Amino acid sequence: MSKATPPRIFVTLAAPTLSVMEAQAGRVSSSQIGYELRLDYLREYDGLEAQLHEMLLRSRSPHTIATCRRAEAGGLFAGSAEDQAGVLEAAVRAGCHWVDIEMESVRRAGVARLSRFRPARVIVSQHNFRKTPPLTDIYRRLSRLPVAIVKIATHARNLSDNLRFQRLLRGRGGRGPKLVAFALGPSGLPSRLLSLRWGCPFAYASAGSLSAVAPGQLPAEVMRSVYRVEHLDHRTQLYGVVGSRASMSLSPAMQNAAFQAKHVNAVYLPCETNYLRDFLSFARHLGFAGFSVTMPFKRAIIQELDWVDPLAAQIGACNTVAVQHGKWMGWNTDAAAVVEVLTKRLRLAGSRILILGAGGAARSAACALRAEGAVVFIAARREAAARTVARSASAQVVPWGSAEGLDVDAVINSTPVGMAPHVDALPIDLARLRVRVVFDMVYYPQETRLLADARGRGLTTISGLEMLVAQGGRQFEIWTGQSAPRALMEQAVRQAFSLSAG
User: Fold this and answer.
1) Closest CA to 53 of 96, 98, 4
2) Are the CB atoms for 395 and 407 separated by under 8 Å?
């Protein structure tokens, strides 16, 4: 049995047959990757030992974990604890180097059962898919068992739960079995990405974006190339994006690509939470050097800052925070990005620009464009909201039903109309609007129906993707003082789009 040092990443393979698992492994084959075989996903177990032996010979992987998780521990195996042990013993005879057995089965079968898995090394695991209970007590109980590794994975209800894993990993002191510990779910993503830096011997990943078997599990390619988890150290600066849907953000792919291109030892993390205070304590504890702010915190964050850029203060929203000399300082790069992308197409001073919508994006665009001397019109279905935005930016309100009759230089769609899954919707009829430039802030899908219609009419178009990269580039420049590699950042976003599409 191999005694070599295990890889830093184990890819979980889960499928109804071993042949499909082998195909999954082929997509991420690397000498620096191990495999966890979720045998509880198999439809049949007849001939398992022989088939698995042949598969392992072909894979030539020096490290394979056999897992057959029972239903009571969150798995798919419906058999008894004795049946489970039989499957795992067959896997060991076939050549698996590790066996992962959950604590529930150990309780049912007794500690003596663990000796049946020799010569494989044993991982005893404890999962909680509802919350994160006291972790020290769990580790203390599991570490008394004759096992090589203790694995603890629990659901993170908030970002602060990640800090409980950091304290556990750093406070263990190297005593007892090794510890693999991380949080599950969107709010637990930081612990998955920082677990190696915090002292875990290895982390888990999926074979692809559609192959995750645990909440929050990321593809191995993303873990290794986007976040470079194997290379993070105590000098790595931490950045991130905070919001209620931060786990879906494309910004990590974009900003991490920029850090790598400019040789900045930093990582940008998704920080998903419904509570701003939760993130603030999390970021302060870990010493974040800066972060992006998305919905719904762009307005509330201003009250927490030591300094706010005047334009961001006028808009009443901040999407970029940098920590400089201990002070939290805020900007609105959405506003700057609107000016940047439009300036490439027309002279803003004196231009007539129609903004559709009355949310935060509309407010940012209106204030920025008025500061450049443009004449701005606001049209929204909620006319009271349009009037509020117009007052804040000294703009003019146009009734929603009359907007199509205007003669303007540019129209900006800041509404979600056209966003997936409602990709066939149009925010305005371009056939009735006299306009030269059409700017759609929606970036998913990349080619909205509005932009396709505008191109078909020979109009100049600006995509939401260009806006995303422009605002992200300005964030990078604020944080690092270096010019942003915008072309590379755009390439990273496009690649992230393709990965998310499967």
Assistant:
1) 96
2) no
Q: In terms of domains, do 143 and 198 share one? A: yes
Question: Does some domain include residue 497?
Answer: no
* Cβ 91 vs Cβ 37: under 8 Å: yes
Please report whether residue 124 resides in a domain. Answer: yes
Is pTM, for the whole model, over 0.85?
Answer: yes
Q: How big, in percent rounded to 5, are the helix, strand and coil portions of the chain?
A: 45, 20, 35
In this structure, which amino acid lies at residue 186? P
**Same domain as 243, residue 230:** no
Q: Which two structure tokens, joined as six digits, stand for 401?
A: 């039903």
pLDDT digits over 57-99, tens only? 998 777 999 999 999 999 999 999 999 999 999 999 999 999 9
Place of tokens 């001939």: 47
CA distance 220 to 26: 12
Are both 305 and 229 inside the same structural domain? Answer: no
Question: Which is nearest to 272 in space by CA: 286, 254, 299, 291?
Answer: 291
- The identity of residue 395, as a single letter, is A
Asked whether residue 109 is assigned to any structural domain, the reply reads yes
Instruction: Kindly state whether residues 261 and 313 are assigned to the same domain.
Output: yes
pLDDT single digits (tens) 364-411: 999 999 999 999 999 999 999 999 999 999 999 999 999 999 999 999
Single out the residue of 357, 358, 353, 356 nearest to residue 369, CA to CA: 353
Catalytic residues: 298
CA distance 45 to 78: 12
Residues 418 and 273 in one domain: no
Length of the chain: 502
CA 109 – CA 172 distance, rounded (Å)? 28
**CATH code at 249?**
3.40.50.10860
